[in-house]
Amino acid sequence: MPDGTAHSYRYEQLRALPQRELDATLCSTGVPAKAQIAHARWQGIFLSDLLENSAQAMFLRSANVLSMDGKSTEISREQWQRALLAFTIHGEPLPANLGYPARLIVPGSYDQHSPGWVTRIHFAHEQPTRASEDTPLLAAITSHHQNTRHNGVLHLSGVAYAGLADITQVEVSIDDADWMPIAFTRAALGCWSTWSAQWQPALPGSVALSVRATDDAGRTSLPHRIRIIIENI
Amino acid sequence: MSSLSRRDFLKLCGISLGTSALLPLADLVAQYDQSALFGRTLGKTAVYDQAAGQAIGQLFPDSVVSLIAETEGWYQTPDGFIPRTQIQPMPGWNKERITTLSTFPVLVEVFAPSAPVYSTASTTAPATARIGYGGVAQAIDYLPDTAGGWLALANQSGTLRGWSQAARWHERSTPQSHHIDQVVLSRQSHVLSAWQGETLVASFTACCATDIPVGTALLNSKLPFLWTTPHQATPWCINWSNGVSLTGAYWHNDFGSNSAQPFKIELSPANSRWLFQNLERSAQLLVQ
Q1: Is B116 in Cβ contact with A202 (below 8 Å)?
Q2: Does residue A134 register a pLDDT over 80?
Q3: How far apart are CA A22 and CA A105, in angstroms?
Q4: Interface test with B, best of A151, A203, A231 (most B CBs within 10 A)
Q5: What is the model's pTM?
Q6: What ipTM describes this predicted complex?
C-alpha cells in the first residue's frame, strides 16, 4: 500500500476465502493472424473484495502486479475493480503454464493485463502511466485453418470478441464478395461471442473466407482471412 | 401462383426460344443442359417463404441455386422464393470445365459463379475485381499451384490486370452459326431482335437507356471484353456509329427495364455472346 503497510496471504488462506466465479475471454491481440484467444470459467477472489476493508482503497489509482518470472504488469483502478485473482480454471487448480498459483484475470482487457504466477500487488495513488486502455476487438474463424482441404457443405464457425463492448454484427465474406451479416450468440461482456454459418461451394478449388466483427462503439475488427481448398462439392 | 413451363421460364429468363418458327435460336438453348436451370445470387440475398412473403433465410453472394419456376418477378427455388433481380440465371451451368487451356494469349470465360481477380496469384492478395458468370477476359499466362493454379489476366492491350483462380475459367469457342445483318431495338418494349435478311432469327429482352437515338447506325467495332472500370470487365461489347454500346451484363438481371447508363444496351451474357459471334461486319442497328 502507498502508506507502507502490507498484507500478506498464504495460498491456503486465499483459497479459504469465499471463492467467486468469473467467465472471461483472454485475447492476445487484435491482429487475427497473430492472435491467441481462449475462454474459460475462472474461480478465485475479486481484488475489490480484498480491498473492501481498506480505508485507502478509494484513493488508489493504479497497481503493479509482480510475477514470479520478474515481470511487472501495471493495471488501472478500473481494471482491478473487475479483476479476479484466480486459483482454479473450470474447477481445477491452475496448471503451471496458465499461471499457477494465481493469475489475475482482468476481463475485457488484452491478456497482457492478466498476468500469471502472481506473487505481489503494489497499489499506488498515482494514475497509471498509460493514458488509456486498448480495447480488444477480434473476429476469428476457428473451425478451419489456412489451406484446410474440405469436401461438401462448409460449416464455418468461430468467435468474436470486443472486450467490455458489445458485439453488434459479425459478417462473413466468401471470395471477397459483399460482407454478409451472420447469426451469432450475444455473450456477456468480457466474453467471446460465437458465430456459425453454412455455405455450399459451387465448384472445387481454392476459396478465400473472411470474417469481421463490429462492436457497439462502431469499431470494425481487422478481417480474419483464410484460404480453404474445396476438393469435392 | 401458377407454374410455368420450361419454355415459358426460359423466355422469362431472357434466353427465349422466341416462337417455334424461330428454330435457329433453339441452337442457342441447345448449347446448354436443359435438365436443370441454375442461377447465382448477385449479392447477399434474402429468401422468402413465398413471393413478397416473409424472409426465412439468406444466401451468400454467388450462391448457386436451382431455379424451379418464375412468377411475377420472383424465382422459386428449393429453399424458398427470391426476387428475380437478385438472381443471374446461369444457362449452361454444369460444374465441368469444358476445355483446358493450352496456348496463350487466349480468350477465357467465367464458368464459376464468379471469379475474383487478385493483384498477385494468391487469395491473400487484395482483390481488384470480381467477374461474374459469363464474364470474359484475356489470359496471358498460367501459374500452377496445389489448388488448380492461376491465370494471369490482361486487358485488351495485353497489360496484366491481375490473377484469378484458373479453375473458374474456361476457353470456349463456338463457330458462327448465323449471319445477322440487322439488329432492331424497340425502345418501348425493350426487345432486341436479330435478323438475317428477311428472317427473324432471335429476339432478346434488353436493358436499354432512354436516350438511345431513334434511327439507323452501323457497326463500328466489336471487343470481346472491355475493362470499363478498374473493377469490372464488360463482356461482348458491340459499338455502333451512333455512340451506342451493346454489351453483356453479368451484374444484374434487370433486362426489360431502362438502363441508367447513357447510350447503353445490355443483354444477358449468353445472349450478348451469341449476338457478338453471329453479327456480320456490315450489320446495322435500327432503333425504333
Answers
A1: no
A2: no
A3: 9
A4: A203
A5: 0.82
A6: 0.78
